[in-house]
Amino acid sequence: MAEFRVRRYDGFRSYWQSFEVPAKRGMTVLEGLYYIKENLDSSLAFRASCRMGICGSCAVKINGKPRLACETQILFLGDKITVEPLENYRVIKDLVTDFEGFFAKHKAVKPYLIRKDENYEEPKELLQTPEQLNEYYVFTLCIKCGACYSVCPAASTLDSYLGPAAMAAAYRFCADSRDEGQRDRYEVVSSSQGVWRCHLAMECSEVCPKNIEPAKAVQMLRRSTAFSILRGILGW
Amino acid sequence: MGISGWFKLGGRSVFSWAFTFQRLTGIVLLIYLLAHLTYLTSLLDKTGATYESMISLTVSRQFLIFDLLLVLCGVFHGINGLRIIIHEFGFAHEYRKPIIAVAAILIVAVWLYASYVMCSLTGG
Ligand code: SF4
Ligand code: FES
Fold first, then answer.
1. Most buried one in A38, A216, B63, B84, CB count within 10 A?
2. Exposure string over A52-66, b if 16+ CB within 10 A, otherwise e
3. Which residue of A has its CA nearest to B13?
4. Cα separations (Å) of A171 from A133, A137, B92?
5. Cα distance from B68 to chain A (closest Cα, Å)?
6. What confidence tens digit (pLDDT) does each residue in B20-49 have?
7. How far is the CA of A93 from the centre of ligand 1 (A)?
8. Model confidence, pTM
9. Could you give the ipTM of this predicted complex?
10. Using beta carbons and an 8 Å cutoff, which residues of B are at the interface with A?
């Protein structure tokens, strides 16, 4: 048996509630939450979808650290498990937090290929070497779980801060040899809510379940933005 | 979460600890700078009496512990600041763990040496 201490919120008050969960080898925290919902308290709210570390829906704070509930095995954590909603987001109910702002920031950095010669009538193949792919590949692995944003001290003091995930997405496209939208994105990320607000606490890289090093992406983006500003000043 | 987000240490890695202490030592150094400037304005008293009375209070063996802590703040802020500068613009992120370990060793070594010098100067 494992004891699940879950941080609950009903719209008015926030409190801890404990549940006994029969833990089997290989059982994940997400399965534990489903066990509670199906057998002990159907009012427990949490978010999940793929159950295999792909969709990014199930990130919660487990034993004090943001993790994917579907990728965290109960028996690795011992018999006492605390589950809380992610920080830096508004809690809607229990473990469900409001991701509207997080996705709006993602959208703001234009996370898609921008081409000057877009022609859907006559699409053309855009070739890329393996080296060019390697420039950005790791940043494509982001699953938008929001764990990085939840531990970012810059995000905790400024709601409108773009945050590590959105900037990693911006860098992913800026570093793509097929993309021609760098200028548009530099404009967004060089604002006071963008790259200059990162103080390199680097916690985002420590908690990212996909190990994509969002802190590095933010800094790489800062580098390209700085060079672009410099080029603008020098008229190159 | 507001400013308390700067001081969250539970469940966080050594990098967040370094971030928090960078902020705290920055605040301490700022307060010290203001106190220092206030101190210097005492020189406006041309007789030097005000300055002398303040000096006799703060440059003493009883105050040494505060001086040592102040030096620790300065050493931490400086060396940790250099560590952050190394990583600026995306450099050496893969080596951040050995780099922070080296920075920690340097901080302790420099502080111990500075403490030794200061203790010897005050006749300790
Ligand atoms: S960068 Fe990592 S922690 Fe942040 S949203 Fe993407 S996968 Fe999650
Ligand atoms: S349920 Fe999809 S990542 Fe966990």
1. A216
2. eeebbbbbbbbbebb
3. A203
4. 13, 11, 17
5. 26
6. 999 999 999 999 999 888 888 887 877 878
7. 22
8. 0.91
9. 0.86
10. 1-6, 8, 10-13, 15-16, 18-19, 84, 87-91, 93-94, 96
